[in-house]
Write a structure and sequence with these properties.
This protein is mostly beta strands. 0% of the residues lie in helices and 66% in strands. It contains no helices and 13 strands. It has strands at residues 5-9, 12-17, 21-25, 33-44, 46-53, 58-65, 69-76, 79-86, 95-102, 105-110, 113-119, 128-133, 137-148. The strands form two sheets. The protein has a seven-stranded antiparallel beta sheet, with no helix packed on it. The protein has a six-stranded antiparallel beta sheet with strand order 3-12-5-6-7-8, with no helix packed on it. A hairpin with a 2-residue loop joins strand 9 (95-102) and strand 10. It is globular and about 35 Å long. The protein starts with a strand and ends with a strand.
């Protein structure tokens, strides 16, 4: 885990950070899988699920990234927004974020609706899953699940 402070509140991971935050789990060699998290934005504009993480410097992020924006972001020592869309999201509301990652194709959904489909031709081939924030704020993470193909 990197950055911020966390605690368990009402059976949820409560994360507060003045910078970035990352929590990683699972095998680093996992390639094709589905990862899902249920989260509630409480403050700030960055509330994300992490996938294909090879530590803090190489990973993908999907979720809320800016006021009324959802994005797929690649970190390869610096952050690059691969795709961003308008998406009206609200503080205090629980959302289910899901990423289906097969090879370089990423299908990203919020509450069961696919909103981003992106093909990365220079993709990170494997990595862990996790929870993340790229900016200051507060998020409640209720769950995270993962299943390989």
């Amino acid at each position: 885990m990197t950055g911020g402070a966390w605690s368990i509140e009402k059976r949820q991971l409560h994360v507060i950070t003045n910078e970035t935050f990352g929590l990683y789990t699972g095998p680093y060699y996992s390639k094709d899988y589905v990862v899902e998290t249920a989260l509630t934005p409480e403050y700030g504009e960055s509330h994300l699920v992490v996938f294909r993480s090879i530590g803090t410097e190489r990973a993908y992020f999907f979720g809320f990234n800016g006021s009324n924006k959802a994005a797929l972001i690649k970190r390869d020592h610096e952050n690059t927004v691969l795709e961003e869309i308008d998406f009206l999201w609200k503080m205090g509301k629980e959302y289910n974020l899901k990423v289906d990652a097969v090879g370089g194709l990423f299908r990203c959904s919020i509450d069961g609706k696919e909103i981003i489909k992106f093909k990365d031709n220079n993709f990170i081939p494997s990595g862990m899953i996790g929870l993340g924030k790229l900016e200051p704020g507060r998020t409640l993470f209720k769950s995270i699940s993962f299943s390989e193909y």
